[in-house]
Amino acid sequence: MKKAFLTLLPVAILATVAIAANNLFHKEIKAEEWIAFAIDVQRENHATQIHLTGLLANSAMGIAASDTHIAPDGETVNITLYQRLANPQYSGALDREIRVQGRLKSVTYGSAEQVIWQAPQA
Length: 122
What we know:
By secondary structure, the protein is an alpha+beta fold. It contains one helix and eight strands; from the N terminus they run αββββββββ.
C-alpha cells in the first residue's frame, strides 16, 4: 500500500502543478480556435471602433485577457486574446469593443500578426 502511494505521489504532484500553471498563466488563443469569429470596424473622425465577436471552440476555456498594440506609424493595430480554464469570471463568448485613436489601415491578430481587417482602398 505504501509503495503504491509513493508511486502515485509524483503523478499527483505533477497534475496539481499543471492545473495551477494553467490557472496562473494565460495561453494565446490562436485564430483557428475561434468559431464564428467576426470583426466590425467603424471609423469616426479621428478614432476607430473595433468590435470583435465569436466563440472559443474549446468549451472548457474562457477568454481571460487581451493585449492591444498599435504600430509606431499608427496605421495598424494588433490584438491578441488569451485563454484559461473557464469559470464564472471567464467565458468562451467573445464580445469586445476596442477603441483606438487614428484612422487604421489594418487590424492583425495574435503573435502571427494575421491580417483580419483592412481598410477599403480609396
